[in-house]
Specification:
The protein is of the alpha+beta class and 378 residues long. Helices cover 22% and strands 20% of the residues. The structure holds 2-acetamido-2-deoxy-beta-D-glucopyranose (NAG) (3 copies).
Amino acid sequence: MRLILAILVIILVSINVASSWSCADSDMTFPPGVTIKCSDSSCATDEQSLTVSFCSSKYYCDQTTFDCIEKSDQGGPCSDDNECLTGYECVDSTCGAYNYAQSGETCSNTNQCIEGLECTSGACTLGTNGCTDNDQCAYGKYCNTTSQDCFDRISDQQPCIIGLDEKPCGSYSKCVPTVLGSNSSICVPYFSLGETKACGDEATDETNACDISKGLDCFSGTCQLLSANGYNQTQFSGNCNDPNLALDPCNENSQCTCIQSDRGVCISQVASSVDEIRTCGAVSMRMTACAVEHKCNEQAGQSVKNCFWQHCGEEFCGSLADCAPIYKELTSELVCVIEGLLPLPCSTLGYSIGAAGSSISLISLSSVLMISFVSLLF
Ligand SMILES: *[C@@H]1O[C@H](CO)[C@@H](O)[C@H](O)[C@H]1NC(C)=O
Ligand SMILES: *[C@@H]1O[C@H](CO)[C@@H](O)[C@H](O)[C@H]1NC(C)=O
Ligand SMILES: *[C@@H]1O[C@H](CO)[C@@H](O)[C@H](O)[C@H]1NC(C)=O
């Protein structure tokens, strides 16, 4: 689901420095042991007491004065998107919901429709220029970019050709071989395959095809229990920038995350136990089922009014804790940091993603985000 992907890209930009191996560029250069606070008044750092303050979700940080300033609600004034509550954009100096309505959804103005659609007779419709992107088509259709028109996708259980995206399976379906090694393939819904079922060819293991709520993932072309295969994680604690480290010190299942300007640790990207993966997988499956039920296209974005947030937002925000149990331990103090890194419109919609509890360190916070990263990735 691209929504999740978009969120995760932002997380990676925020806390991952693996690509360049330079901790110096990281936003997150706090030593362990710092106190992180959510504040409604100040976003200044107090070096004496090692306290780093972030504005809570309904405020933004004025980068000149380090004051927290209340964000505008829909219709309120702004000069930049970050001055609006998460999920609204700043257009013509006013915060509002834009760019969210899918093909066929009601609208009163073209800027409410997903880019490329026009508001015609009260509904978002494909303009005379045709489509350039699948998300401009109604749910269940794809864009033929040659003819720039929308056509039906391939139904589940019908033949498909792996790697041929032009006529794709459903938004939440995958093209997999009928049996391992066969060159005949069919579309199957996400997370629908049981143990030993073919889920890829030799070159690709399809993610999201196997039933993750049973702890199954795709390995060497078939769905296998994670416990049998495990994710092999490297343990590393040292300087990510050490010139003697010719290679990425962390393996593919972990990432070097900066904790100081010159020091990083490998942090697991995956939920640490099979139980966690199963529980979290069940969340991914429910979110997919919700998107399918409400015919939400993959394109979601952050607008509070888009199909996914309107129909699945409450459960998504509420389920983050199931997915990463450590969320349950978050103090409300820390929720702002998560909300800052994951720009989810949860608080704008009135849903909480954290609960009262004890404080956790930044390092576990990063690992929480990494857990959500892989577990929710689809
Ligand atoms: C896409 O449209 C072009 C031009 O009309 C057509 O030749 C082609 O077969 C179409 N592709 C699919 C997959 O429908
Ligand atoms: C499948 O593979 C067989 C044998 O390699 C080949 O003869 C056949 O043309 C292939 N079918 C398709 C649809 O690619
Ligand atoms: C995990 O990785 C280490 C180092 O690459 C390797 O020696 C070990 O055999 C791997 N374990 C499994 C179960 O693949």
